[in-house]
Amino acid sequence: MKMDGVFAGGGVKCFSFIGALQVFEEKSHEFDRLAGTSAGALFAALIKAGYTSEELIELLNELEVSYFLDPRKTVLPFKLMRWVLLYYRLGLYKGNELEKWVKEKLAAKGVSTFADLPPGSLKIVVSDITRGRIVVIPDDLPQYGLIPEKFSVAKAIRMSCSIPYFFEPAKMYDRSGKPSIIVDGAVLSNFPIWLFLDRNLRAKRPVVGFRLTPKLEDIPKKKVSNAVEMFQSLFDTMMKAHDIRYIIKEHADNIIFIPIDEVKTTDFNIPEEKKRELIDLGRKQTEKFFRKWKY
């Protein structure tokens, strides 16, 4: 069966998507269109480029995730350097190694720009915090005077993975030459299932989503007893509020919820054993989903 897929962001937690893909392959399901945010955008792109779950595991085995942490060289002491990078560069790490790795892996499958993919088959979400809006790449690129077909898929993924204060944000310029600061798409839409729904929240083909959270009714209430907890809850609410409105009962039945609490999004030193556990969890939750899924 052909369907559309939407992958939520979640940093290193997204290793669980490999286990989910294993189940889809075993059931001979194919993705026609894919969309994603942050690390979800990375997996969506790799799958659309033609990588199988077995090949993704091989990439995982050879990958040292901490390699993506590429701070700028400086003569300043490390602690002071961190504050300087945050203040002037708006992020601790450049993100260049991440983009370089993605570019190399996509090129191995013959994918460089969006012209190398079927039109409309891959959509990547980023956040333009200068203009205060969600940007869908490649669809919205003409607003910045850019040609969608010529835009690098790896660059779009690097933009979508620009976790605020962690990776340096990217920049895009409008037609008048004014820059926009681009950060992680999760800031405004971490689960862009709305991309494949019409105005009446209906889809023209099955849309299966992958979220790295429990079902809505199982998400624990937040404790807010001080200013720090209030800020954390405000930020978390801002990230989720836009997407939750689309997870009505009808669409919740088409979402694979993979609850992961013990792994942090930016745990780039995650051990190999934990990676395998995430893959197994993704597989387990997807098998559970298909036992009840009706379409």
Structure description:
The chain is α/β, with parallel strands linked by helices and 295 residues long. The protein is 36% helix and 17% strand. It has 9 helices and 10 strands. It has helices at residues 16-26, 39-49, 53-62, 78-89, 96-107, 153-160, 227-244, 249-252, 272-292; strands spanning 2-7, 30-37, 91-93, 122-128, 133-137, 165-167, 170-173, 179-184, 207-211, 255-257. The strands form 2 sheets. Strands 1, 2, 4, 5, 7, 8, 9 and 10 form an 8-stranded mixed sheet that branches. Strands 3-6 form a two-stranded parallel ribbon. Helix 1 links the parallel strand 1 and strand 2 (30-37). Helix 1 (16-26) runs antiparallel to helix 3 and helix 1 packs across helix 9. The longest helix is centred in the last third of the chain and has 21 residues, at 272-292. 39% of the residues are buried.
Q: Major β-sheet, in short? A: 8 strands, mixed
The residue fraction in helices comes out at 25-40%
Summing up helix and strand content along with how strands pair, one would put the structural category as alpha/beta
User: Which overall shape is indicated by the principal axes computed on the Cα atoms?
Assistant: globular
Terminal CA distance: 10 Å
Gyration radius from CA atoms, angstroms:
19 Å
Mean pLDDT across the residues is 85
Q: What's the number of extended β-strand segments?
A: 10
Strand content: 15-25%
How large is the count of helical segments?
9
Series of secondary-structure elements, N-terminal to C-terminal: EHEHHHEHEEHEEEEHHEH
Uncertain residue segments: none
